[in-house]
Amino acid sequence: MARLTQPDALTISDLQRLAQDEIARRRRPQRLSRAARLFLIHRLSHWAGAGLWGVAGATAACAAVMGATSPLRAAVWATMTFAAFFAARFLLNQFQRGDAPAGRPFRWRADYTAALVVLSAAFGSGAFILTPAGASGFALSGFIICAGAVMAAAAHIAHWPATAALAAPAFTFVFLAALKTPTPVSSASLVLATAFLSALSLAAGAKRYRIVARRRHPADVFGSASGVKDADTQTVVEKKAARAA
Question: Model-level pTM?
């Protein structure tokens, strides 16, 4: 293209091209566009219910099995976990119904993730409550809790912090409970290996979800993913026009 010698020779297409070139140069490709992040929030709200019900089902199963030997402990733990479950489910229902929190999706996502931390902590505490130090049954309760946490985290894979919020507290409680068993080394090693493999699988799934979101909703020319505000567009065009003059 011939060198432009006068600013008046710049057409609208030229200005758009110059702005695109400047913004593309300053773009940070690892950052998702706003549309992509909203897409991930939508997927999170779509699949999160299955993960919550997975925790509820694991809680009911574990409480029923362990309640035969420790009914009071099982009842206390189930009450704590179901209370946290209904709190998280309430936030999810609000968003799905389109209530007020749906108008602020990023704020809702933060509140919901915080509720998942509480749910995971209550769920994982069953490793302590159901099997006190020296008692048998840790293998069963620990397996159910770890399996339930991984399945629930997988349902929240559209938002990596939510996935970690569901898995990390539960696995931490199970690991600490494993240290109090008659065979702490083998039990704790098994929990760590399970956590490591689960983390790798969940991280791979979360990365794949982000790739899909970026492909479906790439950053537009003046989008937030470029790191350039809309108000900077005029400055970009003026600088490029001055250089071309």
Answer: 0.74
Whether the Cβ atoms of residue 170 and residue 149 lie closer than 8 Å to each other: yes
Mean pLDDT of 126-151: 81
List, as one string, the DSSP characters of 155-200: HTTTSHHHHHHHHHHHHHHHHHHHTTSSSHHHHHHHHHHHHHHHHH
Q: Which amino acid, one-letter code, is at 158?
A: A
d(CA 220, CA 23): 10
Q: How far is CA 125 from CA 105, 109, 122, in A?
A: 30, 24, 5
What is d(CA 89, CA 103) in angstroms, rounded to the nearest whole number? 18
Residue 114 CA to residue 104 CA, distance in Å, equals: 16
> How many C-alpha atoms does 135 have within 13 Å on its Cβ side?
17
d(C-alpha 73, C-alpha 135), whole Å: 13
pLDDT in tens, 176-228: 988 888 888 888 898 999 999 999 999 988 888 888 888 887 765 444 444 44
